[in-house]
Amino acid sequence: ESREAIPIKVPAAVALRNSLALGRALRPLMGKVPSAIETILDEEATVYQIAESNIWLPVLKPASERWLELALVVEKTSSTAVWKQTITELQNLVKHHGAFRDVRTWELRITETKVNLFPQTSTGCYNSTPHPPQVLIDPKKQRLILLVSDCISVAWRRQLIHPVLELWGRNGLLTILQLLPERLWERTALGSETLVQLHSISPGVVNSRLIVKPWDEDDIEFKSSSVNVPVITLEPYPLLAWSQVIAGQGNVTTVGFNFDVSEDPQAQRRAVDGELSQPQPEASALVSRFRATASPMARRLAGLMAAAPVSLPVVQLIQQTLLPKSAQIHVAEVFMSGLLHSITPIDQDSNPDYIEYDFKPGVRGLLVDSVPISKTVSVIDKVSEFIANQLGLSVKEFEAYLLKPATAINDDLEPKIRPFAHLKAQVLGRLGGEYARLAEELLISETPTSANPSELKQFSFEVVKVNRKGEIIKRENKQASYFTQDLGNGVDLEMVYIPAGRFLMGSPESERGSNYSERPQHQVTIPPFFLGKYPVTQGQWRAVANLPKINRDLKPDPSSFKGENRPVEQVKWFDAVEFCDRLSDYTGTEYRLPSEAEWEYACRAGTTTPFHYGETITSRLANYDGFHTYAKEAKGEYRRETTPVGDFPPNGFGLYDMHGNVFEWCGDAFHDNYEGAPTDGSLWNNNNHHYYCLRGGSWDGIPWYCRSAYRNLYSARDIMYDDVGFRVARGVGRT
User: Fold this and answer.
1) CA-CA 20 to 30 A from 621: which of 73, 403, 495, 535?
2) Which tens digit of pLDDT belongs to each residue from 602-637?
3) Contacts of residue 216, Cβ cutoff 8 Å, sequence gap at least 6
């Protein structure tokens, strides 16, 4: 879905809160040397010349000037936006400090094939004319190159930056200004280099002449092909020690790293590419790693960020209003934790304030669950108030806009408000109670009027409940909402509205047939969605199979048991996904397989018993192997084939055949159990699964395979069975 960044601007918090101390730390660099081009009047020599020689001409001498000029080189990466305020304040500090004869800022861009520098103009923008790295080499060795980076980019990981380090280190004064604090260096490319101590007894010596001491006496001897580079942070004490080393003030050491620049960057590239191709950690692993390594302030900030759209202005708003003691380093910890990804295309000219980010699937929910409800609501209120102000609305007007149906907003505010409405609904839905009800209203507002529950059709049905003997002990009349999707040639697809809610997913050990894959039981919050009233029938399959191909061919008639109104079977997981893709393309709305959580929530329909019918099932209620019993019911019929959909009573949501007839594909990859499972109803996938989930049991299955919590363990997604079908889902909202 294309989303427009919420155009709000918040004054950034001060990044360098210790700028005075940093300025004092730079004082050792304030030495002066005679200028090669500027002269001044030598008063004493002029007077002496007049007195001795009666020559009335001025005697000139070289003017004194600062001995160093500074080239501030900022590496341009995807994380540069996070450091914008820090870099801006650093520029102002070094330009007005007086330690340097001249300060020029350059942007460094590294690709696999070239390295270019772009000078900053007087307007603060970067010139479009590229320059080679050699442009910064000063024959007089009076230019200090300060490379500003967090050392986490691909250029560092693949060692593409090593030739640049070698060039500048052997021919000039190079220092790396590491934006991350020292405790995080191990997680950057510096973690694979050798830590050293550097010092000098002469001012302004090039890196190749620095005196090197190994940090650990057991370290091996350094290769002649290596280069030593001081690495500093924006903290007063390490900055002072480094300044003294550059100024040659005796036996002072500064931290540095020995870079072995002889290694083949291409080999390193292949190694890093191999690492990148590995399966990405799941949400629970990402969050656990972050909590184990991040500072307490960064953990608090991440939790609050999870309640709002993620952009730098919004983060700055949270910092100023709710975490005034937080600093930019805490923002960086969150952004570089692996919890986030950019949802706005980023190029060299992107404005950092208009780049939107989002938490990776499943992460936002885990973070929101760890934050007190009052704090989460505070974030939503603060962000709502600020966005309303920026859009020229009162808070009440803004809230009213959020609740308007998508098709009822026809002005330019709609694309700016809608993303926030969707996110607010996600977050409130996890809080339960009155918040969950408001979340459902927000999500309903996102639904096109053709599928808005207030305008859906209604149907009535009877729900039955049985005891352990399979005897019906209760009958109840209910109604549900639905819409009909026309598939052409008189074929329709009925989609039932499933309201938002929260349920306990999985089964207890005491439930007969339960196994470890259904545990631990865990609360899941489900946003509203639509689900097929029946499994996809053979008639519906044939209609969609005749639509244009998206990714793979579909057989128009794959089923073993023929019948237009029987469920389609003998379909692979890939086939079911292709069906959804074709249907989405045909309708312009995204259809998909339900997640496991959505399927179980829809199947239970508010029940907590093994079956939505109650404590057991009978062959009068579902199509399964009735020769086997589950509780105290009598044996029943084993039909040995599928039956037309809708032959048996529905559940409380008005869904038919949720128990038996055919197993149904879900979108999730199979996991051995629910450790780390999402709690927001989203798909739970990774890159290393060949098995996907089946739910609901089948005509050939024993009764405990038909339980609401049962998960099929063995079905590969590229295998077909005559008892496997599917039903489709669709979100509530524009997709």
Assistant:
1) 495
2) 999 999 999 999 999 999 999 999 999 999 999 999
3) 195
The angle formed by the CA atoms of residues 10, 16 and 19, to the nearest 5 degrees, is 135
Residue type, 475: R
**Cα 38–chain centre separation:** 55
**CA pair distance 680, 458, nearest whole angstrom:** 28
Rounded Cα gap, residues 365 and 680, in angstroms? 6
Is pLDDT at 516 greater than 50 in this prediction?
yes
CA distance 67 to 36: 11
Confidence of residue 364 (pLDDT cuts 50, 70, 90): confident
Please report where in the chains the tokens 């004319």 appear, as a residue.
129
Strands 591-592 and 729-731: antiparallel
User: Whose CA is closest to 617, among 496, 710, 715?
Assistant: 710
Half-sphere exposure of 404 (CA within 13 A, CB side): 17
Q: What 8-state DSSP symbol labels residue 408? A: G
Other Cβ atoms within 10 Å of 433 Cβ, number: 10
H/E stretch holding 269? helix 265-276
pTM of the model: 0.57
Going across the sheet that includes 472-488, the strands are: 457-466, 472-488, 491-498, 529-532, 729-731, 591-592
Classify 168 in phi/psi space as left (phi over 0), alpha (psi -120 to 50) or beta.
alpha
Query: Residue 259: enclosing H or E segment and its boundaries?
Result: strand 254-260
Rounded CA-CA distance 358/526 in Å is 19
Q: List Cβ neighbours of 284 (8 Å cut-off, separation of 6 or more).
A: 362, 366, 675, 676, 677
How far, in Å, CA of 24 to CA of 239, rounded? Answer: 9
What interhelical angle do 312-322 and 328-335 show, nearest 10? 130
Per DSSP, which regions of 366-467 are E strands?
457-466
Q: Is 400 helix (H, G, I), strand (E, B) or coil?
A: helix
Distance in angstroms (rounded) separating the CA atoms of residues 213 and 320: 44
Q: How do residues 425-473 score in pLDDT, each as one tens digit?
A: 666 666 666 666 666 666 555 554 445 555 689 999 999 999 999 999 9
Tell how strand 173-178 and strand 143-149 pair up. Answer: parallel
Nearest to 386 by CA among 303, 313, 323: 313
The structure tokens 């980076």 sit at 149
Of residues 272 and 245, which shows the higher confidence score? 245
Residue 642 scores a pLDDT above 80: yes
Tokens standing for 734?
């524009």
Query: Looking only at Cα atoms, what is the longest distance across the chain?
Result: 133
> Are 445 and 405 a contacting pair, CB within 8 Å?
yes
Six-digit token pair at 586?
Answer: 């045909």
In sequence order, the 6+-apart residues with CB closer than 8 A to the CB of 490 are: none
Q: pLDDT averaged over the chain?
A: 85
145's tokens: 């190159």
Measure the CA–CA gap between 370 and 281, rounded to whole angstroms. 20
Query: Can you state the percent helix, strand and coil of the chain, rounding each to 5?
Result: 35, 20, 45
CA pseudo-torsion sign 154, 329, 426, 387: negative
The CA–CA distances, whole Å, from 262 to 99, 222, 265 equal 35, 12, 9
**Cα(50)–Cα(42) distance, integer angstroms:** 12
Provide the terminal-to-terminal Cα distance of the chain, rounded to the nearest Å.
6
pLDDT of 2-48, one tens digit each? Answer: 344 444 455 555 777 788 999 999 999 988 877 777 888 889 988 99
In the numeric block, which tokens belong to residue 292?
Answer: 């184990």
Q: Which of 547, 537, 536 is nearest to 586 (CA)?
A: 547
